[in-house]
Amino acid sequence: MSTARTTRDSAGSARPDAGKPSGRTGATASGAAGGLVDGRADGTVSGAADGRADGTVSGGAGSLVDGRAAGRVADQDGRPAGAGRAAGTAAWAGAGGPFAEPMRPRPLRATGRLLRSELGLTFRRPRNIAMLVVLAVVPVIMGVVLRVVGMDEDTPSIVTQVAGNGVMLTFVAMSMLIQLLLPLAVAVVAGESIAGEAGGGTLRYLLTAPAGRTRLLLVKFANMAVFALAACAVVALAALVTGFALFPVGPVTLLSGTTIPLFDGLLRLLLVVAYCAAGMAAFGAIGIAVSTMTEVPIGAVAGSVVGVVFFQVFSLIPQLEPIRPYLLTTWWSTFDGAMRDPVATDVMTQGLFAFASYALIAGAIAWGRFTSRDITS
């Protein structure tokens, strides 16, 4: 007499079971090669792994297959391949099937994806590209004018040095553009960070993603800081190329009168770019704070630029000399500490401390406003 048992599936047909765990009405589970499987149907549980009612699940040698309520079996990849699926049935219980609960992305990975998306939008926007082009053209115009027109006795000494070394054109261009054009470019990106999303009606939908307001604010700041660095780098690179093309290039004479090799001069140029980018990032933090208070991007941009103008005016009034060290714009031009021998690290460190203080204060204001406001657009 044969010892094989027969069981009946949900359709009522008989099949050999060969000693494997019994199924339940609506779900049949079998295990092979030492695998433990589980069938659940109407509250009945057997085994140690997990299957679901309304379907047929079988596991062999670690593989996972899937079926649906009508009694069809899927392929061995665990992907549904047969017909007879019951609506809303989660028979595919392993390896993250289409009915399984989605895995939450890791915070750092999600933040990185959001930042890459922001950077892509920022550097593909025609207006931002146009601003970078303008920043690159201005040093070229300056170099051509100095080359063609020349310089007279009233020309500042740092400008006069351009005729002897094209590397100095970079320092001249940076000292002029950092007063207004660079802040204007950064203000546009910072002013649009929150106000642009709110004005365009995308802020509410952006927050429906698991980003969180604090994380979104940090991503906006990082995006603005990267743009500020790119803007400063564009100015420096354009001026450097123009200087190499129109003027002699050689050992660099610093403001202190010391001559250093060309390579050391280029390293100091990198220091200037990083220092100026830090100053622009601090200003951009103010722009983001203003952006959280309005839904009109142009208003945030205008408010930030007006702030720069006020700082510049205050620094020119002799009676306001006591407050001059506390103005952000006072420290923008102290990048000339990199053009001295030795490098004026004490002055530049104070400038970095001022930049960090402004960024922290503006960031706290932006965070307090953004996390407490009602998002209606």
Give the topology, please.
Blueprint: E1 6-8, E2 14-16, E3 27-32, E4 39-41, E5 44-46, E6 55-60, H1 107-124, H2 126-148, H3 157-160, H4 168-177, H5 181-199, H6 203-208, H7 213-246, E7 252-253, E8 259-260, H8 262-291, H9 297-316, H10 345-372
Parallel strand pairs: 3-6
Antiparallel strand pairs: 1-2, 4-5, 7-8
Helix pairs in contact: 1-7, 2-4, 2-5, 2-7, 4-7, 5-7, 5-8, 5-9, 7-8, 8-9, 8-10
Describe this structure in words.
This protein has two domains: 1-103, no CATH class; 109-372, no CATH class. Helices cover 51% and strands 7% of the residues. The longest helix is centred in the middle third of the chain and has 34 residues, at 213-246. It is mostly helical. The chain has helices at residues 107-124, 126-148, 157-160, 168-177, 181-199, 203-208, 213-246, 262-291, 297-316, 345-372; strands at 6-8, 14-16, 27-32, 39-41, 44-46, 55-60, 252-253, 259-260. Strands 1-2 form a two-stranded antiparallel ribbon. A two-stranded parallel sheet has the order 3-6.
